[in-house]
Amino acid sequence: MKTKEMVFAALFAAFIGVLGLIPPIPLGFIPVPITVQTLGVMLAGCFLGKKTGAISVILFLVLVAIGLPLLSGGRGGLSHLIGPSTGYFISWPIAAFCIGFMTEKVWATLKTWKLIVINIVFGVLLVNLIGAPVMAIITHTSVWAGLAGSAAFLPGDCIKAIIAAIIAVQLKSISPIEEKVHNS
């Protein structure tokens, strides 16, 4: 891994942490709050690409695991990664990788709408399809109840997917993906 990729991974891990300063919105019917941090996960994938994007999210989760209060609401520590939100946290590096993979595939013909679709499929649907069943298992409820409860995340997550796509397209010229395309 090049130094520049390491710096980008660290910057995006920090960016996801900064998004954690925005307080979570607790929902009364499911134990997982609404946060803005999934915006950082989507941006990591569509700006950094598959490898560096996934590494940045893994780095963020490692920093949380060792106790840094980077989760929304100033939470940190291994105990906060294990609970109803576990499936969502597990899905974040997978989502960043998949978003990065698909973004790299369409990079030559990149359009905002393509990134919106990629972010919705992998940053919204995939995250919820992994997170909700794990939440249901941990809370001893049915998977269908978990999926139904996670529907509350869909409007906000779709807005985050649009925002991430717009930002990534605007920053396309300075993206590490652009450098990879020109060097290959």
From TrEMBL:
It is found in: Cell membrane. It comes from the Bacteria. Its main location: membrane. It is a multi-pass membrane protein. GO terms for cellular component: plasma membrane. The keyword 4Fe-4S does not apply. Keywords: Cell membrane, Membrane, Transmembrane, Transmembrane helix, Transport. It holds the Pfam family BioY. Coiled coil: none annotated. GO terms for molecular function: biotin transmembrane transporter activity. PANTHER family: BIOTIN TRANSPORTER BIOY, BIOTIN TRANSPORTER BIOY-RELATED. This is Biotin transporter. It comes from Paenibacillus mangrovi.
